[in-house]
Automatic annotation (TrEMBL):
Encoding gene per record: yedW
Single Gene Ontology BP annotation: regulation of DNA-templated transcription
GO molecular function, one term: transcription cis-regulatory region binding
Gene3D superfamilies reported for this sequence: 3.40.50.2300, Winged helix-like DNA-binding domain superfamily/Winged helix DNA-binding domain
Name of the protein this chain belongs to: Putative transcriptional regulatory protein YedW
Organism: Photobacterium piscicola
Alphabetized CDD domains for the sequence: trans_reg_C (cd00383)
Domain OmpR/PhoB-type stretches: 125-225
Top-level taxon of origin: Bacteria
Length: 225
């Protein structure tokens, strides 16, 4: 795992770098928004830890620019702003989690692990093609050759998550974490219902292909490609 830490407090930044390096996690660091944005735009990271109050470019503007540029790296905001509206604004702008200062290193590490379980999106490949089915993470569409398949947001998230983990079995709890973030829980029955609906929508399109979602009974679902 490789992290980017964008934090202007040198003491906090160094303590995070030492803590993560001791866990075997590689880190890059930036002390201001300008350098942080440049690193985030030009390098692949698994997760970005982002302070909001930064010199140069503030954290919220960094978040907006990354999402506008289709950089979909998971982002955890680390901020002294603890108002409810601040947390809501950060999440609505595209952050994957929000942790307020002061915090414990163990909690931050646990949140990083939770966010990483939702699956990582390749920042350089916006489309994935498997057995003729084409998923576009920028346009949030799924089609078979030239036939569009209309999906709800949760249906799309399930397909996107499984496509990004081809040939890997994902449990329903992992799928739930990915589509519900940290604020809700999607039951196993609901996930199964979503997958059943996806298959029905494909069948209604008279597509001469089998959608490659497979079930490994007792373990979860996977995409066979």
């Amino acid at each position: 795992m490789k992290l980017l830490i964008i934090e202007d407090s040198s003491a906090l930044r160094r303590s995070l770098v030492v803590g993560f390096n001791n866990l075997g996690i590689t880190t890059d660091e930036a002390s201001n928004g300008t350098d942080g944005l440049s690193l985030a735009l030009n390098n692949p990271y698994d997760i970005i830890i982002l302070d909001l109050m930064l010199p140069g470019i503030d954290g919220m503007d960094i978040l907006k620019q990354l999402r506008k540029s289709a950089v979909q790296t998971r982002i955890i905001i680390l901020s002294a702003n603890n108002q409810r509206q601040d947390r809501i604004d950060g999440l609505l702008q595209g952050a994957d989690d929000y942790l307020t200062k002061p915090f414990s290193f163990d909690e931050l590490h646990a949140r990083i692990l939770a966010v990483s379980r939702r699956g990582l999106i390749n920042n350089f490949t916006n489309t994935i093609t498997i057995n003729g089915f084409i998923l576009d993470s920028n346009k949030m569409t799924l089609r078979y050759e030239t036939t569009d398949i209309e999906l709800t947001p949760n249906e799309f998230k399930i397909v996107e998550y499984l496509f990004n983990h081809k040939d890997q079995v994902m449990s329903t709890s992992m799928i739930s974490d990915n589509i519900a973030n940290n604020f809700d829980y999607i039951s196993k029955n609901t996930i199964e219902a979503h997958i059943s609906t996806i298959r029905k929508k494909i069948k209604l399109k008279m597509i001469d292909a089998t959608f490659p979602i497979k079930n490994k009974r007792g373990f979860g679902y996977y995409i066979e490609g």
